[in-house]
């Protein structure tokens, strides 16, 4: 299952034009899908990421991955969920600096919830702006398609 498969699941789980619910998001990657620890190569293939990206996320402290006796990284379901979250945030434009701050706050515990909330609210505003900008771009693209005699499909 790749990241695009996860996104396809999310889109399929929506009801009409309603936003996807948090329960639907949580169900995208279930614990029973990852029953044994995974290697870097397996997680890279699963999430359609490069092993370099996974190692980079670990090196900068965004994810902590236990190692086998051999020294190889062994990703569990929690690690994969964290990486999935990180990739969604990166895709939506969150900076590595903000992700690093967010993970630091999570690691500090419940007392940081207000700061995490503020960070997520600011990021949400950025995403909403991106969506609005994409809607304008879609309207312009639809206009050009119609100009050339084509039909736009939803």
From TrEMBL:
It comes from Luteipulveratus flavus. PANTHER family: HTH-TYPE TRANSCRIPTIONAL REGULATOR ADHR, REDOX-CYCLING DRUG-SENSING TRANSCRIPTIONAL ACTIVATOR SOXR. Pfam families: MerR_1. Residues 37-105 form the HTH merR-type domain. The keyword Membrane does not apply. The keyword DNA-binding applies. This is MerR family transcriptional regulator. InterPro entries: DNA-bd_dom_put_sf (IPR009061), MerR-type_HTH_dom (IPR000551), MerR_fam (IPR047057). Keywords: DNA-binding.
């Amino acid at each position: 299952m790749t990241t695009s498969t996860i996104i396809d699941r999310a889109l399929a789980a929506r009801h009409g034009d309603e936003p996807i619910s948090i329960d639907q998001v949580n169900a995208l990657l279930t614990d029973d899908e990852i029953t044994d620890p995974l290697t870097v190569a397996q997680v890279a293939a699963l999430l359609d990421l490069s092993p370099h990206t996974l190692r980079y996320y670990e090196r900068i402290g965004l994810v902590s991955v236990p190692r086998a006796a051999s020294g190889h990284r062994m990703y569990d379901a929690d690690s994969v969920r964290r990486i999935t979250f990180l990739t969604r945030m990166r895709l939506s434009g969150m900076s590595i600096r903000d992700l690093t701050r967010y993970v630091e706050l999570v690691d500090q515990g419940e007392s940081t919830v207000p700061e995490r909330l503020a960070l997520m609210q600011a990021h949400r505003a950025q995403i909403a702006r991106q969506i609005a900008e994409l809607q304008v771009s879609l309207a312009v693209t639809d206009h050009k398609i119609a100009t050339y005699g084509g039909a736009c499909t939803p």
